[in-house]
Amino acid sequence: MTGLTAPGGGPDATAPTPGAPRRRGRPRRTESADTRDRILSAAREEFSERGYEKTSVRGIAKAAGVDSALVHHYFGTKEQMFEAAVEVAFAPALVMRDAVITGPLDQAGERMTRMLIGLWENPVTRAPLLAIVRSAVNNETAAAVFRRLVATQLLRRIADQVDLPDAELRAELAAAQLVGIAMIRYVIKMEPLASADPEQIISRVAPVVQGHLTGP
Q: Residues 123-150: what's their mean pLDDT?
């Protein structure tokens, strides 16, 4: 198989050719965006398949077809690489978060529950979420990255909408309820929850989440 062809008819320098040596050092400016995206994509796959503990910068570089120096150049340490991968994987939740916090507060429980179940039910977003959860469970560094992102980007913004003295605790309890459901259904796959209809789960769990947010 040959490499991709550039507009002028020659090989595209940004596309790695099978068997060719990996590039060393920094890429030309025109290659930067493509190279960074390729490294990030490889990192998500490596973390998903191997978890944080068994993933290495060298392995990410090999999967991306670049030299390890480029991984460090774009992302720094392995922890920073994981955080970048988590942010990309978590992006759909952050987009949906805005819909959760802008609607009526007395319906926030259902919106939160529907958001989380929707993310896990979608195969595209499920795979990176599995990588995040598995890595966070097995490694404290990965867990710290996950906690920091969830706390700053999700829970605090939801808590801001709850006008009660213990708003942060309420938001965390609501999140814990949903994370527990996700762990049992999608990670541990315990029956009958693993095979239950998503709408049935939402109808039963949403009132509990709402209770955490606005109940007595």
A: 79
